[in-house]
Amino acid sequence: MTIAQLAALAGVSTATVSKVVNGRSDVAASTREQIEELIRSRGYRRQRRPAKSAALIDVLFHELRGLYAIEILNGVQEVAREHRLGVVVSELGGRHVPGRDWVEEVLARRPVGVVSVYSGLDPDQTDRLYSRDIPLVQLDPTGDPDHGAPSVGSGNWNGGLSATRHLIGLGHRRIGVVAGPGDMEAARARLDGHRAALDLAGIRPDPALERHGDFNIATGRDLALELLRLDDPPTAVVAGNDGTALGVYHAAAALGVRVPEDLSVVGFDDLPKAKWMIPPLTTVRQPLKDMGAAAARMVVGLAAGEALPQQRVELATELVVRESTAPPRER
To answer: Contact at 8 Å (CB) between 324 and 277?
Structure first.
């Protein structure tokens, strides 16, 4: 379909269709929706990138808090600098799906591409980017992502496996877990790895020792308090991320439980603060900066019309043993 054909079908001018295609806001909402529906149903796609596309990579976060986002941005910025691109950052205030305004802004900017971090676009939003030849790469996608879409992640399952295997090797058998959100692919993989380690060791998982949080310190503390107040509390806790692990530390301190003498703790991410926690945190290192760089390289390659060697890039994780884990104390 051409812009002229779309205009004829919609009963509007080619200038009006052009405004919608290029993300202009000065079109009535009902007319915009009619044209967008035609774009989706008729398969319109820009034949080539406009000459005036902005030299930008858009990075979308569900929220900008802590060093997780900074590490990823450092990786994106490194690649952007190589290609003389700028970086635009958007934040969803804790939501995981952007609203209409965000899509309109991206279409108006016409960036080289979009990196979506721990957030997900609905099919309509994805189609609108695709129809304008704006590539999208997902990093740690939420929900049930389109598995055909390019994405970047880390060895979350193996990380969860290695964390729990480490504790089992120290002699722990009653191991609690404060996992991440159930709607996040990475969090589910970490939990599955934990469960697999228990199964391989012949340890029957106890549902009473599982909690599901949101990767925040306060939630980690509250859920760890629940675990530590059980009649038969765990001797070790696997945390969904380093922030959750810090929450476990706070819960232990509040109850007079010593780490690692009374309770071993393992985190996930290995953010810079992990080695400065007291005691220094044993955690699974996730190469966040490298993940951001990989996503940016995929965007740049797609924008140049290159075929990706693989749709899914998964970088290795590594267990970093510090002083927060030890053999269980005899009871």
So the answer is: yes
